[in-house]
Amino acid sequence: MREIGKAIKFFYHYMKRYKIGFTVTILAIIASTYFQVKAPVYMGRAITELANYVVGLSRGVSDKGSFMQAIWMLLLFYVLTVVGMFISNIVVTYISGNSTNRMRRGLFGKLQRMTIKFFDSHQDGDILSRFTSDLDNISNALNQALGEILMNIAMMIGIIIMMFHENVALAWVTVASTPIAVLIAIVLISKTRKYVDLQQDEVGKLNGYINEQISGQKVVITNGLQGEAIKGFLPHNEKVRKATFKGQVYSGMLFPVMNGLSLVNTAIVIFFGGWLALNGDMARTTALGLVVVFVQYSQQFYQPISQISSLYSMFQVAITGARRLNETFDEPDEINPKAGKQLSGLKQGVALKHVHFGYQQDNEILHDVSMNVEKGRMVALVGPTGSGKTTIMNLLNRFYDVDKGAVTFDGVDVRDIDLKSLREHVGIVLQDSVIFSGTIRDNISFGKPEATDEEIYAAAKQANIHDFIMGLEKGYKTQVSDENSVFSTGQKQLISIARTILTNPTLLILDEATSNVDTVTEAKIQKAMDNVIQGRTSFVIAHRLKTILSADKIVVLKDGKVIEQGSHEQLLEEKGFYSELYHSQFVFE
Ligand SMILES: Nc1ncnc2c1ncn2[C@@H]1O[C@H](COP(=O)(O)OP(=O)(O)OP(=O)(O)O)[C@@H](O)[C@H]1O
């Protein structure tokens, strides 16, 4: 129930601006319903007039006028019904299209404000599915179900009013079976819902399996495990089939059962109407017309019940979609201090002061870590895998906030610095370089779109990638994307370095690639890194000896603690962990 309440709030938020649209829709629905429920009256009248005409013929009186008039009215009412439906459909399509569009925009905007923690703790596929299946489900429900449900509710109310207006006894006969129909609908819906939920779960698991297999396809092929992959896939597929089948059986029963009830009801109405015509005190021709009217009503009356029931599952998945979008919107934004300090370069340096930090509350990763880098100096972070090097990088750029202690720029806590200003001053080169869809020029100027060609060329030259780009047929205008890039892994990193050089960051965070690249590319990367580090304040997660040796200070981390720090010579003299690693072939990775 709470979920439905939240979903209503969610939909209201996105739809409240379309008050005029909804007013038009509701008026169009009321009008079209009126014409639709009024039409059978003219049908009945036409039958009555036809019967009168036939009876009149036998008596030598022949006047078709009233019959024709009733037929024209019937036609007019049918046309007006369709016009009303058309208008309401167009407006509902407009409202649902625009509100889904705004939801998508809002969701994407929200993603840009969210913390790295959210992205670290959610699968890419899961985040993506909020844009695809969740929004699709909402859009389908709004597009197809909203107008239909409003129309059906109006229809039901209209028919009830009309029936009681026309003939109270026959009206009671027609509505008498409603409780049975509603009860059957509730049972079938709850059964359907159970299996639709199960089906969604199983589809989720199936997608997860396929996702994992696609990303691990190379490992599967290398190990010749294609057969095993299919074996693992089949049970998931079978579970989806079973759940889908059962769901479909129950939801498929809804329409025939409702149709059957409607037909039985029609027969009862005809029977009772016939009795009324033969034994009642109204004219037989009038009674005959009335039977025709109620045959129409009894069929129309059942339509909304079965339609609303069959649209319910659509709403159910839309409510689930709204819940998942709400969850995303409820996630905290990155915290930006009010009137945060604007950085203007670095005067002294950057420091970590007695930092304690954990990704989860009860699992501290960094324990009392302190270190500093003076302006223009380079610190190399070394340590075994899992020792906390990347975590320190995450704190310097304020991807995460420390639990205790502080990260400071010129003595100012990063939590007091305006986030945009902080990020403008920090440049990051990660191991996994990302290529965005666009030209090579777009990719290099990503962080500074207004850069001139000369600036871009200069950055690419410093990153040692200019000559390669110029060798391509379309040079800087070559179209690339992450899947379809002309670059090798090493070259991707050079592009990433060029991108960072162009933004001219005050503090550089660099994660040296460990991926195997050929020696020529490796030499190029090394040179590019030297260029980008030159004269800049930098933290480097260093894997290569040459990088470590060129550092002003080496900080050795182990199990989230700084165990040694100093220059290469000092650390060798200490004969501690670093010296041990250095002498045992220097294995830091
Ligand atoms: N997003 C995260 N959520 C939870 N725990 C994490 C997360 N990222 C890292 N950790 C944990 O924090 C610890 C330190 O990881 P970190 O990535 O900082 O190590 P590292 O020294 O950079 O390792 P490597 O050299 O392998 O990259 C590890 O135990 C890791 O499991």
UniProtKB/TrEMBL annotation:
It is found in: Cell membrane. Residues 350-584 form the ABC transporter domain. One of its GO terms (molecular function) is ATP hydrolysis activity. GO terms for cellular component: plasma membrane. Residues 24-316 form the ABC transmembrane type-1 domain. Keywords: ATP-binding, Cell membrane, Membrane, Nucleotide-binding, Transmembrane, Transmembrane helix, Transport. InterPro entries: AAA+_ATPase, ABC1_TM_dom, ABC1_TM_sf, ABC_transporter-like_ATP-bd, P-loop_NTPase, Type_1_exporter. The chain crosses the membrane at residues 20-37, 70-95, 145-164, 170-189, 249-278. The keyword Cell membrane applies. Pfam families: ABC_membrane (PF00664), ABC_tran (PF00005). PROSITE patterns: ABC_TM1F, ABC_TRANSPORTER_2. It is a multi-pass membrane protein. This is ABC transporter ATP-binding protein. The lineage of its organism: Bacteria, Bacillati, Bacillota, Bacilli, Lactobacillales.
